[in-house]
Amino acid sequence: MIIGVDYYPEHWGKEFWIPDADLMRKTGVGIVRMAEFAWSRLSPKEGVYTFEWLDEIIGIFRERGIKVILGTPTNCPPRWFCEKYPDAIPVGRDARPNPIGIRGHRCYNHPDFLRHAGDMIERMTKRYAKEKTVVAWQIDNELEANFCFCKRCTEKYRAWLKEKYGDLESINKFYGNEVWSGEYSSWEQIDPPFGTYPAAWLNPAYMLDFNRFASDDMIQYVDFQAKIIRRNCPEAKITTNVWFCENMPDFYKTFAGLDFVSFDNYPPTKIPEDAGQFYSHAFHLDLMRGIKRQGFCVMEELSGEPGCWSPMGRMPYPGMISGYSLQAFAHGADAVVHFRWRTAVSGAEMYWHGLIDHSNVPGRRFKEFEELCRVARGLKDIAGTQILSEVAILYSADNEYAFKIQPQTNGMYYLGQIRLFYEALMKYGLNIDIIGEQEELSGYKLIVAPEMYVTDPEVVKKLYAFVKKGGTLVLTNRSGVKNKYNNCIMEPLPAPYRELVGCCVLEYDPVGYDHVAVRFADGSNYRAGQWCDILKPEGEETKVLACYNSEFYKGSAAITENKYGSGTAYYIGTVGEQEMYVHLLEKILQECGIAYIEGLPDHVEITTRTGKDITARFLFNNAGEVRQFILDGKEISLQPFEMRIERSDIK
Amino acid sequence: MIIGVDYYPEHWGKEFWIPDADLMRKTGVGIVRMAEFAWSRLSPKEGVYTFEWLDEIIGIFRERGIKVILGTPTNCPPRWFCEKYPDAIPVGRDARPNPIGIRGHRCYNHPDFLRHAGDMIERMTKRYAKEKTVVAWQIDNELEANFCFCKRCTEKYRAWLKEKYGDLESINKFYGNEVWSGEYSSWEQIDPPFGTYPAAWLNPAYMLDFNRFASDDMIQYVDFQAKIIRRNCPEAKITTNVWFCENMPDFYKTFAGLDFVSFDNYPPTKIPEDAGQFYSHAFHLDLMRGIKRQGFCVMEELSGEPGCWSPMGRMPYPGMISGYSLQAFAHGADAVVHFRWRTAVSGAEMYWHGLIDHSNVPGRRFKEFEELCRVARGLKDIAGTQILSEVAILYSADNEYAFKIQPQTNGMYYLGQIRLFYEALMKYGLNIDIIGEQEELSGYKLIVAPEMYVTDPEVVKKLYAFVKKGGTLVLTNRSGVKNKYNNCIMEPLPAPYRELVGCCVLEYDPVGYDHVAVRFADGSNYRAGQWCDILKPEGEETKVLACYNSEFYKGSAAITENKYGSGTAYYIGTVGEQEMYVHLLEKILQECGIAYIEGLPDHVEITTRTGKDITARFLFNNAGEVRQFILDGKEISLQPFEMRIERSDIK
Amino acid sequence: MIIGVDYYPEHWGKEFWIPDADLMRKTGVGIVRMAEFAWSRLSPKEGVYTFEWLDEIIGIFRERGIKVILGTPTNCPPRWFCEKYPDAIPVGRDARPNPIGIRGHRCYNHPDFLRHAGDMIERMTKRYAKEKTVVAWQIDNELEANFCFCKRCTEKYRAWLKEKYGDLESINKFYGNEVWSGEYSSWEQIDPPFGTYPAAWLNPAYMLDFNRFASDDMIQYVDFQAKIIRRNCPEAKITTNVWFCENMPDFYKTFAGLDFVSFDNYPPTKIPEDAGQFYSHAFHLDLMRGIKRQGFCVMEELSGEPGCWSPMGRMPYPGMISGYSLQAFAHGADAVVHFRWRTAVSGAEMYWHGLIDHSNVPGRRFKEFEELCRVARGLKDIAGTQILSEVAILYSADNEYAFKIQPQTNGMYYLGQIRLFYEALMKYGLNIDIIGEQEELSGYKLIVAPEMYVTDPEVVKKLYAFVKKGGTLVLTNRSGVKNKYNNCIMEPLPAPYRELVGCCVLEYDPVGYDHVAVRFADGSNYRAGQWCDILKPEGEETKVLACYNSEFYKGSAAITENKYGSGTAYYIGTVGEQEMYVHLLEKILQECGIAYIEGLPDHVEITTRTGKDITARFLFNNAGEVRQFILDGKEISLQPFEMRIERSDIK
């Protein structure tokens, strides 16, 4: 397994380069990412190119056997570019150019920007095409879907719509534009969503399409870069580094044309006072692995106190830096690149701490990193192994967008409900896949599909087939609400899934922050909130698993189970506390015949990687306290953030 | 009594129209409001008119004996209009056109908008002039005072000032513009209040006038429409639907030229955990009745979960939909139109639920509505009856504006203090009028005049005369503070009312969220807050009813009573908890000789409508629990939101 | 000692002038400030001047022996000016002119504004040059550093940079502009910090320089005015009135060319429910005295309820108005001017209450003011006496800016930490100086230097010398972090102070709102938060005074003491609760040999003024309750806000 660092030679005098590279080699650093913000150093003036320093530092790494990932430096065009092409600065919702001075100051669609960026990438890729040390390319940095509102992007949005719908009549029809006299009679009437009011105030069909366009348009920009890189460096791997940002692209489409996924992974450093509030990034890591259903790379990994975009956060607790790297391996990463080697002494990010402090004196965190490198070297046999899972959770970019556009009720978040299932499954020590809703489902015993809100008929068909053939499916409230245009389906909910789950929603109560009681047939009680579907069981084999135990609909069904074909479909009409899912899923796992581990303490995470000849079980304590438990008859004790890796040969 | 629905034929395929209308007839729907957002369907392109569909649906209703209210569709000009006349879009405080895509995207003063709107209204009214089914017209929709800051509106504001004051010298004088060198030396120096800082940072005299202008200017737009409708449809009734919005117009002036008041009534659907926090819309309904001192119409009434402008709220509790409609009748409405027949499946308002859900399967709420229609049919004898009251509360648009411009202290709201009196009176089962301060007072025994802040000398004169002739008046803190220009009066408070109440304010303490103690002569103690006037009784017959019992002014008078002429004037120098008003008003009611009911439980509302031959008493339980009590010796039990109507013939 | 009032003759009819002046004389008012907003009354049209009314009112005061301070009325140019020169209105971060209608609507750098302002000051100063009654001039009003973003100010910012750095290469180097490709290649690429995101998102070196420019540029405007006044009125004293505003200038540089400091002093009127939260303005007063290290003037002093910029606050408690004026004397003021004589009846500030209410009937507050005047007359012998202190706290404008630009952690404020020391010292009844970090330190026994964040090498040198010669120094966390460009110093913290304090910071934990435990060698325990430096004692004589007693670094040093030369340097690595400083400073005072008072109750403030022949001790109870204590063997009892002054002749 590879441990790397993000390194900014351009931030440091040359006198630092060789000592830094020597220390990296000694420590066991295998790869270095560079150059993604270095445009002004590679081309300080229009037409002037100064690649020599980059040649030199690449050479330094080559000599020490350290591989290099190069970033295309297109996130930050130099000031000379901004001065010359002021209208290449992205335009905000207020119809005015964003102020520059931070980063990301380039419109993906400005022809001069594309010309200059293309030229830079062309030169870089040609220059390093034969350089074996450069093993991969990162496109730009932390790209977001295109929320530039300039005239050029507006034109592209109109063109995107024209290609999708052909004519305005279709748009008016599929958007329901008759509401509030919103019918378009010319293409020029279509604008991006200017203004800062909540998205919910605008037509949700229009808004969902705008989000899709914004994602597609960003991907077009990714593909523009990938094409140049591919042409000049056909053997190098290509990626871009994503994160959970405000304007998220569709991750599945983003990486369709790229070679591997990379992710910027910054788990919170604060240990919560209420241990129940501990947040695991395992969820994000599994989601990343699921994008291409293969190993991935962490391109930026926690290395010290975060700062810069807000006041500084807590110092990483001993074990966190190492533990969270190993956690990434445990969930399918094959390389983890730490951000960053040394903390910057200038610029806005000077308090986003690296492995080494401003003082350049390696300290506690660096020692932990050294130990991590040592451990990672011992994991060579695990590289390339797989994470095999019988359970998958479905995720959909359309749902992500649609719920952001129209928040259903106070406290309800799409990813929040997905996490409730994820964390309940994690309590049972399972490998869990998180995959796109469009993915193939064969091979899974259990599919959990929370809030299937925007409906893709192909997905519906696939889920029916999955259950019919014997699979187990869990569906929830807010499924089947919308057609693919983001308009409501005129059928009783869960509309297309009604037959599958054998029940329908008589009425719903958006309870928001209020609490209701849910009672299971076995007498166990749970608190629920956010939403209550009042269910009417309809199928011959529909069983009521739990009822509401408060409100005027006390006694009405809240959770049902239905036989369909050879399989089973569950419907959960409300959003319960974490324990409710733990309770319910144990029953479901048993009925699916999925082997699971009982009695794991909170925040102990167990996953397994499987290779041709080896199985490695990762036991991780993602808590600030020692955890003790019995596993396979043996007593295990894990220190805070300790990762234990148990190998067994495949017999 | 009439029950109606708001209906959007343009949102649904024609195949829905006849089934919908049939179901309405069967259910007992008496009236339908339509067309107030349908401009793009009535004129899809400039010069093209497509009224045929509206003819058709009106015909369908005509055939079923259902009357129609038509809205002028001027709230939402079509996109072709916006494209052709971009400067007809209202301009915000930031001096830039508001983004469009929601609604209300038209400047009341743009000549091309007025020309197109006038033409549309002209055509509609001519077309349906002879159509007896169309019984009323609604002007635009939920109009707000004119806060457009475009050049045209700025000119109109200057012209309004010129007409009011004649010259700049007067403005400078009456505004006190010598402060901060704010003196105007040309009309062009006068702008609307650009910028987003608090209103209090600007000259309050200027701000009050701007609010008055904004209201007057909206009313001019109403009158522009009313004139066309009146000319073509002299027999139809004209209204516009108001609500408590951010930029409220003066309701009294708004309806001066119209035939009846209509109101959009959305009581909260969440039952508060603290029953003491239950909010009654009775107050709003009585305020609406008081605008023209006659029966009114609810043009939009709660029908399901609210949503769209924020995440969805709670589902209406059983009984709410019916109960709140009947509550409107109990407070003087003669028609209640429910918003809306069926929930929209597209557009931003798709989660503002109607009587029928997206599924088009009528459910629990629709059943309740059916029952409501049945009940309403049984109330024919009550239609046109009156609500007679011996008590009136005064309200003033000027005060509303002036308190919004300069919030006096934390927690103090003008309507909030009015409600404290209103709810205390409601505890005694009284009919309560809420009337404009300019209204005639004869016939009342008790006038409650909270916070008579901006002084109209005519009103002062009237109140003196009212008390002199034997009336009882309750005045409060923050009365007589301002002259009609919104400048402070240079006299000890309550300035013009000093003689009437027989006391003056030595000093005041804006206590805000802090609490003080108030002690009555009978030893009862109450918590007060927000404001403390330290009173000095001055009249020969001034009695101190209560003193402060905390702070350094402990022992100073807080509430006084004064004989004046044949009547009595009370002055309440602080803002107490609800119970303080209940306590004090019992004494006052007794002294006025107003009969009242004792011992009503919280949230039981009793009002009486009186006709020539009949008296009907409405008993309403506005709480989520059963209420039991004794009335006239009989035990009464009311379910949550139950309305019981007791008739007695006039003997 | 002089008591004065702020008076606005232009707000009142002439019929008020003589009665007002007579009452002032009778009451004992010694000085009146006028005219700082009166431009439109002095020049109602371009080229028209109307000084006669000002002549007249000055004459009225002259006849009554009342001195006058005149304000230059440049804060508010008249509307005719704004109409004629719309681009003289300051431009905001959104690159658009600020809306006018409040005040401060002038760009310091607009040539027409400077021409008109210069002309007005020229005329005023010439007119009153011989008028002995006019004893001082106030420049403009409550000036803020120049945050105008207009083209003209942008040019000046570039010129300021050009003068400071000479070339772009230096700027790029000292700013670390290689980060995010921020390197300038032309001067036109340098803009002020447009946009409303947090300052921390921009390059901190750039931001600190912009703050310095903004301060310098305001001072240039001050000097422009001072030069005219000085030329025409060489004998008059010149000042400007400052306060703790959002865009603070460097106070030390601001007053370098002026004659005395003046300050607008508005202590909070609300007595906190938690007495521990009582806020003393003593800190601000001492900071003001320290600016020029001489007596100062309060130019605006609390006189009644504050209002206008927010809802009204509480009425001043009896004793506050008098007590807070005397508190200013106790901390070195020689004159206190009350804002304002009578409350305005028009304009936005009508609820910022003066001594007399809107009614013009003097009340409780005015009686207190009369008594204050009487007391002040009895303090003639104290005028001109000095406040001698053995302790100084250092303050730096650079730190103020730099911490605002990059908040270090939740809850940490520069002035907040300074106050912790200040209030601990105040518990010991000491005179405390607060002085600029650039000041001479000789004469002090103890220097407290909290958060010496931005490093001035001269200051470092001075502090080493101070300790070497036997002084005692207290340093804290976040010292030596930045070089003078606001970039991080590449050395272990506290970098330049490492040798002096004999320890270094191994690592730090930005704990923010979390709490940690600190334990002293004597077993006493305190709560700390915000920040934890984990210290490594390095010197031979370094002692650990306290350790952390929680977190994984439990047992690590938190507070150290080091002998250096003949002196001692303490380093406090965390931010403790108030009591921790009280505990620690007692030890330090003892070791320094500074005499102090023991056992003072909370909020009793004792300071001493010393003259040639007299010593006056001021005993002030800054609390809402009686305070009793023993002092010099005598029992003292102080009423709320009571000031007792004890004289003793110098023997």
| Oligomer category | homotrimer
User: So how many helices of chain A?
Assistant: 17
Radius of gyration of chain A: 26 Å
Q: Structural class of the secondary structure composition of chain A? A: alpha/beta
Q: Which term fits the overall shape of chain A?
A: globular
Question: In this structure, how is the largest beta sheet of chain A organized?
Answer: 10 strands, mixed
Distance between the termini of chain A: 24 Å
Give the amount of beta strand of chain A, in percent.
15-25%
Mean pLDDT of chain A: 97
Poorly predicted runs of chain A = none
Largest interface between protein chains, with number of residues from each side? A-B, 52 and 56 residues
- Strands of the biggest beta sheet of chain A: in what spatial order? 11-10-12-13-18-17-16-14-15-19
Q: What name does the CATH topology of the largest domain in chain A carry? A: TIM Barrel
* CATH top-level class of the largest domain in chain A: Alpha Beta
CATH homologous group name of the largest domain in chain A? Glycosidases
Counting DSSP E segments of at least 2 residues, the number of strands of chain A comes to 24
- The CATH architecture category of the largest domain in chain A equals Alpha-Beta Barrel
Portion of residues within helices of chain A: 25-40%
Number of domains of chain A: 3
